[in-house]
Amino acid sequence: MATIFTALQDVQARIDTACTAVGRNPAAVKLLAVSKTFPAADIQALYQFGQRAFGENYAQELANKCQILAEYNDIEWHFIGPLQSNKTRLVAENAAWVHTIERFKIAERLSAQRPTHLPPINICLQVNVSGETTKSGVAPEQVLALAEQVAKLPQLCLRGLMCIPESSHDSEILAQQFLVLVQLKAQLQARGYALDTLSMGMSNDLESAIAADSTLVRVGSAIFGQRHYSS
């Protein structure tokens, strides 16, 4: 447990340093601990060290962990994986945030299946900023149309945008792709959408993302280590 705490401290220090380097307040950047494939015990450990926001990629795993950790009712669960129509109910019933909306059909199902006693799900639209055919996300030029549709759904709250840039160590390439998201957010805000979230930056590129104005970084391996995949 000391190891996972040290890793958490190291990531928080990276966030602080990255913010200081560009004159930002570290409190403006939320750390999302990406706990996919890791046991609930690891989440409990990080919870004891003050971490509250956790990200899951698989709907059934999210539902299972929510049940196991039900007593920790102030955990903020984020769904950050691709979402299929037949799994939306599990996410609608358990997640506070969904970062990966790229189709109106999925958003519509989430809204319809969200229990009415729960607050609306916070939504980020996933944008394909690199143009890679292997990447999920709506094309930048289609973001406005999707935002208009999603914003009208009663059980959702459109909060921001998310991206996964191409895997690169070139800070200029990363900066250019993150800038696409920054500019889209500004365009949507100019049209009256109250967006406050840019979900961008992971273990390998969080410094570049923070320099580009990310408000939420999704960090898994730098905290938890190598992933545990079951056969």
From TrEMBL:
Domain Alanine racemase N-terminal: 11-227
Similarity comment: Belongs to the pyridoxal phosphate-binding protein YggS/PROSC family.
N6-(pyridoxal phosphate)lysine modifications at: 36
Protein name: Pyridoxal phosphate homeostasis protein
Gene source species: Deefgea salmonis
Physiological role: Pyridoxal 5'-phosphate (PLP)-binding protein, which is involved in PLP homeostasis.
Keyword S-adenosyl-L-methionine: no
Listed InterPro entries: Ala_racemase_N, PLP-binding_barrel, PyrdxlP_homeostasis
HAMAP family named in the record: PLP_homeostasis
Annotated NCBIfam families: YggS family pyridoxal phosphate-dependent enzyme
Entry superkingdom: Bacteria
The entry's keywords: Pyridoxal phosphate
